[in-house]
Specification:
The protein is globular. Helix content is about 45%, strand content about 20%. By secondary structure, it is an alpha+beta fold. It comes from Streptacidiphilus jiangxiensis. This is SCP-2 sterol transfer family protein. One of its GO terms (cellular component) is cytosol.
Length: about 150
């Protein structure tokens, strides 16, 4: 399924991470940008992606890591989520908390969707300036090891 119109009717809670990765891979950057122009659909997609982070978390790889990761997603980083990793547990909060993040990741909608679906390389995004990292670069580099990233 790569029909952008069909995405609006899709129940994202019933889509596996691998299916989501295939859907994202089948869409061009232009099509991804069209999808997120629908504010309601964009919000549903982002909430579902972040809701899955807790179940995709690999505590054995994170070890004793304790950190807050702030995600700023969108053209101006207008949507904020935070992922808190604390000694084998992962929790996600929509919006900005009072916690000071160890790292903040800033990226556009299409880049974010490609990244979390395993369809983009974070190093390539960083060096092409489509992913901005503020704070602990080592932690940012380790994030892909802390989560089970689906493959399309």
């Amino acid at each position: 399924m790569t029909d952008t119109a069909g995405l609006a009717d899709l129940d994202f809670t019933s889509v596996t991470p691998q299916e989501f990765a295939r859907i994202v891979k089948g869409l061009s950057t232009k099509e991804l940008k069209e999808v997120v122009q629908d504010a309601g659909l964009r919000r549903r997609i982002l909430r579902e992606v972040f809701a899955r982070m807790e179940s995709q978390f690999r505590p054995e790889n994170a070890g004793q890591t304790s950190a807050v990761i702030r995600w700023k997603v969108g053209a101006d980083g207008e949507t904020v989520f935070e992922t808190a990793i604390d000694k084998g547990a992962c929790t996600v909060t929509e919006g900005r908390t009072e916690e000071t993040p160890k790292v903040t990741l800033v990226l556009g909608d299409a880049e974010f969707l490609n990244l979390v679906s395993g369809n983009a390389n974070p190093i390539t995004l960083f060096f092409s300036r489509r992913l901005k990292v503020v704070g602990d670069l080592t932690l940012a580099a380790r994030l892909t090891h802390y989560f089970d990233i689906p493959k399309a």
